[in-house]
TrEMBL record:
Keyword DNA repair recorded: no
InterPro entries attached to this UniProt entry: 2-oxoacid:Fd_oxidoreductase, THDP-binding, TPP_enzyme_TPP-bd
Keywords per UniProt: Oxidoreductase
Alphabetical list of Pfam families matching this protein: TPP_enzyme_C
GO-annotated molecular function: oxidoreductase activity, acting on the aldehyde or oxo group of donors, iron-sulfur protein as acceptor; thiamine pyrophosphate binding
Record-given protein name: 2-oxoglutarate oxidoreductase
Lineage per the UniProt record: Bacteria, Pseudomonadati, Bacteroidota, Bacteroidia, Bacteroidales
PANTHER family: 2-OXOGLUTARATE OXIDOREDUCTASE SUBUNIT KORB-RELATED (PTHR48084), SUBUNIT OF PYRUVATE:FLAVODOXIN OXIDOREDUCTASE (PTHR48084:SF3)
GO biological process, any: small molecule metabolic process
Domain called Thiamine pyrophosphate enzyme TPP-binding: residue spans: 65-218
Xref: Gene3D superfamilies: 3.40.50.970
Length: 257
């Protein structure tokens, strides 16, 4: 076997999904977004839905997601992705429709759209990237920022007396009649990545089967916003975020409907 054969794609342990193109990503080194993009692309490809999927991305770090995954996309105003996804799915019920949103977008600016789309049981999947901060706009406090966590708008740490408490949007979604699958995952290890991919696949399949709304939260890092190296950011996430946002399925009625 010559050198070219050794490094050819078919001989690599990792094969980039075909839907993930060669456009360099704008995400910071160590960011979780790239891994989740890969998983979304893999699942769509494995489901054979390349030509029947519509993603919706609003304002936030993921605003350029359409540049990296070669499917149909629709841009939405800040926080309005679930409303746009609702319209697309109702017009094209045979399409796989999902939103890809950060915590500031979904849990603050778009709280109403998120809550009501989930409660109505729209047959869409919401992928929720929770890094407990506004990553794109300067590291401000988000609804998911932990008590004591420092950001550019709470430099001395979040306090409940001044800023209120962190919002557990996923726990809220699990209580709604319209949701069929609600889970919280992460992508900091190989095992976690495998679990998240399985969750995304289950959510996508549930939406195509007309079983209701699914929410896949991915607890993530923002090492640039947190002012930490990628390694330290993963450690901080495991030591702090996982305690307040524990991983696992919160609701699964996909076999009941």
């Amino acid at each position: 076997m010559d050198k070219n054969e050794i490094i050819s794609p078919e001989n690599l342990a990792y094969k980039k999904p075909a839907l993930l193109n060669e456009t360099p990503m704008h995400y910071c080194p160590g960011c979780s977004h790239g891994v989740v993009h890969k998983l979304v692309a893999e699942v769509i490809e494995e489901m054979g839905m390349e030509n029947k999927t519509v993603g919706v991305c609003p304002v936030g770090c993921s605003v350029f997601a359409y540049r990296y995954i070669d499917i149909d996309w629709s841009e939405a105003a800040h926080g309005r992705a679930p409303a746009v996804a609702t319209a697309i799915k109702r017009v094209w019920p045979d399409r796989l429709v999902f939103t890809y949103q950060g915590d500031g977008d979904l849990a603050c600016i778009g709280t109403a759209e998120s809550i009501h789309a989930l409660n109505r049981g729209e047959n869409i999947t919401i992928i929720f990237i929770n890094n407990a901060i506004y990553g794109m706009t300067g590291g401000q406090m988000a609804p998911t920022t932990l008590i004591g966590q420092k950001t550019s708008t709470c430099p001395y740490g979040r306090t409940p007396e001044l800023h209120g408490y962190p919002l557990k949007i996923t726990e809220m979604a699990a209580l709604m009649e319209g949701t069929c699958y609600v889970t919280r995952q992460s992508v900091e290890t190989v095992a976690a990545i495998r679990s998240t991919k399985k969750a995304i696949r289950k959510a996508f399949e549930a939406s195509m089967a007309g079983k209701g709304s699914s929410l896949v939260e991915v607890v993530s890092t923002c090492n640039s916003g947190w002012k930490l190296s990628p390694v330290k950011a993963n450690e901080w996430m495991k030591e702090n975020l996982f305690k307040f946002y524990p991983k696992g399925d919160l609701k699964d009625t996909t076999e009941d409907k």
